[in-house]
Amino acid sequence: AQSVAQPEDQVNVAEGNPLTVKCTYSVSGNPYLFWYVQYPNRGLQFLLKYITGDNLVKGSYGFEAEFNKSQTSFHLKKPSALVSDSALYFCAVRDGSSGNTGKLIFGQGTTLQVKP
Amino acid sequence: ETGVTQSPTHLIKTRGQQVTLRCSSQSGHNTVSWYQQALGQGPQFIFQYYREEENGRGNFPPRFSGLQFPNYSSELNVNALELDDSALYLCASSAAGVSTEAFFGQGTRLTVV
Questions:
Q1: What span, in angstroms and rounded, lies between the C-alpha atoms of A94 and A103?
Q2: What are the φ and ψ backbone dihedral angles of A3, each rounded to 5 degrees?
Q3: Cystine design at B55: which of A17, A26, A32, B50 (Cβ 3.0–4.6 Å)?
Q4: B104 and A107: CB-CB below 8 Å?
Q5: Of B64, B110, B65, B66, nearest to B87 (Cα)?
Q6: Predicted local distance difference test score (pLDDT) of residue A40
Q7: pLDDT tens, B8-60?
Q8: How many C-beta neighbours within 10 Å does residue B1 have?
């Protein structure tokens, strides 16, 4: 069965320090991986995606993510956190064997708290 | 902003009633998906429409139904509302294909009392 796990409910980091938000996945076919951010009472904003190729993917607002096939992980990273990065982050996977169905499987979300 | 708009932003319904939520997709996108996000949870896939036909469905009962129109806008209809239907309903539009990212609207907050 397809699934996404975000093992940390909350990540706390000081402004200026590097941050990592963890994600592991399980799919039967090739994984297409996505990160989204959600601010309070808002929809989800797309940050970045991994389809194929380079394992390090760069996205919006200075975020990047590293795909690791052997560990089935897709961790979100940023070299220097900002207070404005504080939000709820979702990892999502789409199974490449699902045909044209765009079904995204989301993790439970990780709240990132960046303190000044 | 994503260009995906949803209406209304909030509404309150009574158990047993019916509700229709609306979504206008981003220009150039022919695929619309609907998700339910309960409080404190990740979004759950309800169904997807591609060129006006349902093209995939999640684990939701038949009282959840939808439509997609020729301009690719979409509706989500929920009949016989239950208290557990209270959630944020998100619409996402995308180009066709498994590798394309979905762009989400701001959501409709439905409260069933």
A1: 6
A2: -160, 160
A3: B50
A4: no
A5: B110
A6: 85
A7: 999 999 999 999 999 999 888 889 999 999 999 999 999 999 989 998 899 99
A8: 10
At B2 the pLDDT is: 67
Q: Tell me how far the alpha carbon of residue A98 is from its chain's centroid.
A: 21
Rounded to the nearest angstrom, the minimum Cα separation between B80 and chain A is 25
Which chain B residues touch A32 with a CB distance below 8 Å?
98-99
CA B9 to chain centre: 12
How many CB pairs below 8 Å do chains A and B form together? 81
* Rounded Cα–Cα distance for residues B14 and B113 (Å): 5
Q: Which residue of B has its CA nearest to A38?
A: B106
H/E element, B57:
strand B53-57
Residues comprising chain B, all counted: 113
At position A11, the amino acid (one-letter code) is: V
Structure confidence by residue, pLDDT tens digits, B52-95 = 999 889 999 999 999 999 989 999 999 999 999 999 999 999 98
Q: Which residues of A touch B103 (CB under 8 A)?
A: 46
The overall longest dimension of chain B from CA atoms, in Å, is 39
Sorted by sequence, the CB contacts under 8 Å of residue B108 that are 6+ apart come out as B6, B7, B8, B9, B10, B11, B21, B88, B89
Q: Which residues contact A11 (CB under 8 A, 6 or more apart)?
A: A19, A20, A21, A110, A111, A112, A113
